[in-house]
Specification:
The chain has 2 domains: 60 residues, no CATH class; 77 residues, OB fold (Dihydrolipoamide Acetyltransferase, E2P) (Beta Barrel), CATH 2.40.50.100. It is built from 1 helix and 13 strands, in the order αβββββββββββββ. Strand 9 and strand 10 form a beta hairpin.
């Protein structure tokens, strides 16, 4: 069965092409798209052997036996960690993609933990990328309010690592 994103991509491709009608069949699923005179995909019909549902958005209509439309809105979700303390006003973020390490070695204590006072040049963690261990400095004076990642966790560029209450 085609995913919604794949259907959207097909709609865009057909809309840009000279094709006026398109049908796709696979494993008991059939998708038919027809362009109206204004160049937009007018109808899209899905026939499957499983229960069906109707989806309506600004470009297409997927029809079913019930003919009851369900509106789909695109929603962007930004994952923001929950902060227990309201006095955190700065985030130390990862400058690269890599693996987060809270201590210099497995048998050593963590560089910092919740409640630790830090200076601008305090090393707060290591992010390992491509076998290079990069020491991450705090860049602000303050107190660690929350540690947002676990030791050994993969982190993304710009991902918050610590919440800090600056002084």
């Amino acid at each position: 069965m085609l995913k919604v994103q794949e259907i959207r991509e097909l709609i865009k491709l057909i809309d840009k092409s000279d094709i006026s009608e398109f049908t796709y069949e696979n494993d008991g699923t059939s998708v038919t798209m027809k362009k109206s005179g204004n160049g937009f995909v007018e109808q899209q019909q899905v026939v499957t052997e499983t229960p069906k549902q109707t989806v309506v958005n600004n470009e297409s209509k997927v029809t079913t036996d019930k003919e009851e439309p369900i509106k789909v809105e695109s929603v962007q979700v930004k994952a923001e960690p929950q902060v227990d303390s309201t006095d955190a006003n700065y985030e130390i973020v990862s400058p690269m993609v890599g693996t987060f390490y809270a201590s210099p070695s497995p048998d050593s204590d963590n560089y910092v933990s919740k409640g630790s006072n830090i200076q601008k040049d305090t090393i707060v963690c290591i992010v390992e990328a491509m076998k290079l261990f990069n020491e991450i400095e705090a860049e602000v004076d303050g107190e660690i309010v929350e540690v947002l990642v676990e030791n050994g966790e993969l982190v993304e560029y710009g991902q918050p690592l610590f919440k800090v209450k600056t002084k």
